[in-house]
Amino acid sequence: MSFIQIQPDYQYGFKDTEAHIFKTPKGLSRAIVEMISRYKNEPQWMLEYRLHAYDVFCKKKMPHWGADLSGINFDEMYYYLKPTERSTQEWSDLPKDIKKTFDRLGIPQMEQDFLAGVGAQYDSEVVYHNMRKELVDLGVVFSDVETAMREHPDLVKQYFGTVIPSGDNKFAALNSAVWSGGSFVYVPPGVQVNTPLQAYFRINAQNMGQFERTLIIADEGSFVHYVEGCTAPIYQSASLHSAVVEIIVLRGARVRYTTVQNWSKNVYNLVTKRAVAYEDATMEWVDGNFGSRVTMKYPSVYLMGKGARADILSLAMAGEGQHQDAGGKVVHVAPLTTSHIVSKSISHHGGRTSYRGLLKIHPEAYGVKSNVQCDALILDEASRSDTYPVMEIDNDDVSIGHEATVSKIGTEQLFYLQSRGLSPQEASLMMVNGFIEPIVKELPLEYAVEMNRLIELEMEGSVG
Amino acid sequence: MSMVFVRGLDVCVEQKVIIHNLSLEIRAGEIHAIMGPNGSGKSTLAQVIAGNPGFEVTHGEILFEGKSIVTFSPEERARKGVFLAFQYPVEIPGVSLSSFLRTAYQRTHAEVGSVAEFQKEITSAMQPLGIAEEFSDRNVNEGFSGGEKKKAEILQLKMLDPKFAVIDEIDSGLDIDALQAVAQSINEWMSPEKSVLIITHYNRILKYLTPTHVHIMKQGRIMESGGKELAEQVEAMGYRESQ
């Protein structure tokens, strides 16, 4: 599997020497699943849940309808690696290497500057977790899922696996069998968490699979903005990131979930993300995909209650050797629900982007409004973009808009900008930044700056 | 001194000759007008001076301040002080006019002031053009009316402050008030150290922007040159009779 290109522009490609206190043997089996569960000292119901999911995983075929996944070899992978003895609330408690890694990623600084809470996962376990005291006092819970299972067993048991059952797809089943780490968030009724909670995911070891699990419950009338970022070292062999993210947005609540995905280009990123939104609730996905070799990810929202709303902003950029198969899905189950999907993709230097979307309207969902817009920008002849929108509309009393555009940077546009003193590279970057502006303007300033910088690096690296 | 010196220029597009053996000298402080019927090659000349790679200079020279710029990229020409106000300005979605102006200014000048200072300058440059303040928040040329596009070109001229401006068909799509405002802005920008080449089909704009030289172009050549009276002659008799 020597497919990866040298990635001189990827500044997060450094790696720490692997040090772990526990690692399962290579490959996946029933025994490995049991080993993980036993090691985590889990309740019986979770062990059974895992074993059932493992059976489902074994039975399900690889998805063949999307990106090329032939580079994944399940037998060559490690499924669980525990890097430290325990999770800490102090960065200084972390082993030196790990602390240095998160320092280089700027996480402690960001926490100090503008975040309400931070969780940091390193390979299979969350090694750092902390949240501002005032939120703790308000009853907000932000921890890894293992801790939540001990401290809030009823909540976890009530919601875990209800939005994305293990039988949903092969990779959801895999996650359900070997999951570890991730985030659990509970926001009590009426509580507004006005600064973001952030989780940061780092894969360090080679041939590693990271399978974090995220469960967010926003109780009635609450609000939370959750942000995740991810990076990994560059290896010649494939790593796998296969997360499951379940979100429950109860009546009148609002959740915004922002992702800045910047995996190194040897990572297969196959993630299932889904939310259910009840009466008058709002779910917003802001999904930015820059890194990875292959990403298959379609954040979804099930609109279960009257007046619920879904907003999906998806942004994908694919360069040499990358395939970003992204998009969004909305299922209107209840009447008078609204959805809005905006997908923007940029492909360059042989990169490939696909938009894959689903809009489904149930027969009882009258008065639905939905608008889907997908725009692709292709920067050169070697690159490619495809659109696979699916619509299943079973109610006549609906208002639906769908618009798709494919554009290239025209020679006229280039000349116009050059005549104003911009080099062709600067001109392309300006066009790209203009193209994604509707999405970037939705981000908190710090992430907008980060996204613009990622795009600039990506384009510089590929032009030179 | 001679600012722009075009000497024996031949220009081809896909092996078709568009401009043939054209020579033109423009000195600092001069306003030249090139008039001609549609298809005479006058807009091609504007594009070639600005460096559009879609046109091939097969023969001749373009000297700017004594140096040949024929092999220069468009951005190198812009940085030397050459500006083209486009006949058909291009839309740049998602990029606000003000941030576009600031980037362009940074690329063509050594230093740029703070965002607030720069915005102030934009506002004061927009005022005489009759453009509302929020105009600079809009995306470059996106959804602009024909007149707004032309005004935005002249706003760029004022803000980027080049040495030499080629102004291509600025009068099309402008009503009389807008035309006067545009001409006034060009006049205000103009100085004895700068020069202008106006490309126009009609004499209309030349009533507000007095040319020092007028050239009649047909079939890729300059047929006749003279003073501003030549423009009036064209107005009275049309192109056919004027030669």
What tags apply to this protein structure?
heterodimer; A: 464 residues; alpha/beta; ten-stranded mixed sheet; 24 strands; 25% helix; disordered N terminus; B: 243 residues; Rossmann fold; six-stranded mixed sheet; four-stranded antiparallel sheet; 7 helices; 12 strands; 34% helix; globular
Describe the structure.
The complex is a heterodimer of chains A (464) and B (243). Chain A is α/β, with parallel strands linked by helices and 464 residues long. Chain A has 2 domains: 276 residues, no CATH class; 53 residues, no CATH class. Chain A has 11 helices and 24 strands. In chain A, strands 5, 6, 8, 9, 11, 12, 14, 16, 17, 19, 21 and 23 form a 12-stranded mixed sheet that branches. A 10-stranded mixed sheet of chain A has the order 4-3-7-10-13-15-18-20-22-24. Chain A starts with 21 loop residues before the first strand and ends with a helix. The N terminus of chain A is likely disordered. Chain B has 243 residues and is α/β, with parallel strands linked by helices. Chain B has one domain: Rossmann fold (3-Layer(aba) Sandwich). At the A-B interface, helix 9 and helix 10 of A face helix 2, strand 7 and helix 3 of B.
